[in-house]
């Protein structure tokens, strides 16, 4: 009787432990599904990756948000321009280094541009406590060797340790862009980026029109700080 009670306690404790342990990695043999309420939580449960519907929209998006802040604050969205119309979304890691989001019919909704010529079954996707989602070799944690990372593709939030500007090694520009509306995370009219014509300086844009500039940096402050009249015509 005592042994039976101990076994029951052991399994109950193990179940509680498993439920309370954050899963921050998925491998090529695992998927995250919307219908199964699948998520990836960073190790210290700061951020969560999963499916959500913004505002009053019924569309479904794959995004990253703060776990312990209410109401929900979404800091990154994968399929900003290509929403899912239902809860059939499936996220998977491919052995060639890509992260792929598809719908119930198998149609690709969004994928990363991280295809590799060598098939690697140790490829993993990992969500860090910084809010950065990365694809990497499961045996190599060196950031210089990441296949892809969400920090290279900001949305409307800039997180601590995240950078904006040009990365000439990777051949990309990182910049912030507004949501179209609280119900639609597609890129809106406003962006915040570094202009490298002459001395680099931070600039805010409404479409292609400069609405404010902060810079260049003179080692003390951003010189030439000036704000133009705010434009309230769109978001």
Automatic annotation (TrEMBL):
Bulb-type lectin domain mapped to chain residues: 23-148
First and last residue of the signal peptide: 1-22
InterPro entries according to UniProt: Bulb-type_lectin_dom, Bulb-type_lectin_dom_sf
Alphabetized Pfam families for the sequence: B_lectin
UniProt KW keywords: Glycoprotein, Signal
Keyword Hydrolase in annotation: no
PANTHER family found in the cross-reference section: BULB-TYPE LECTIN DOMAIN-CONTAINING PROTEIN (PTHR32444), OS01G0958200 PROTEIN (PTHR32444:SF247)
Protein name (Swiss-Prot/TrEMBL): Bulb-type lectin domain-containing protein
């Amino acid at each position: 009787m005592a042994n039976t009670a101990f076994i029951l306690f052991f399994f109950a404790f193990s179940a509680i432990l498993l439920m309370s342990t954050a899963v921050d990695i998925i491998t090529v043999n695992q998927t995250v599904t919307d219908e199964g309420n699948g998520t990836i939580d960073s190790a210290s449960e700061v951020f969560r990756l999963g499916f959500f519907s913004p505002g009053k929209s019924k569309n479904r998006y794959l995004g990253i948000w703060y776990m312990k802040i209410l109401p929900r604050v979404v800091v990154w969205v994968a399929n900003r321009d290509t929403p899912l119309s239902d809860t059939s979304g499936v996220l998977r890691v491919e052995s060639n280094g890509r992260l792929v989001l598809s719908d119930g019919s198998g149609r690709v909704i969004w994928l990363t541009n991280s295809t590799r010529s060598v098939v690697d079954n140790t490829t993993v996707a990992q969500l860090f406590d910084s809010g950065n989602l990365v694809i990497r070799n499961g045996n190599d944690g060196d950031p210089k060797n990441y296949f892809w990372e969400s920090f290279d593709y900001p949305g409307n939030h800039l997180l601590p340790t995240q950078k904006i500007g040009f990365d000439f090694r990777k051949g990309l520009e990182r910049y912030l862009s507004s949501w179209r509306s609280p119900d639609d995370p597609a890129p809106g009219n406003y962006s915040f980026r570094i202009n490298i014509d002459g001395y680099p300086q931070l600039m805010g844009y409404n479409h292609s029109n400069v609405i404010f500039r902060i810079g260049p940096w003179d080692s003390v402050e951003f010189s030439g700080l000036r704000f133009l009249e705010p434009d309230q015509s769109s978001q």
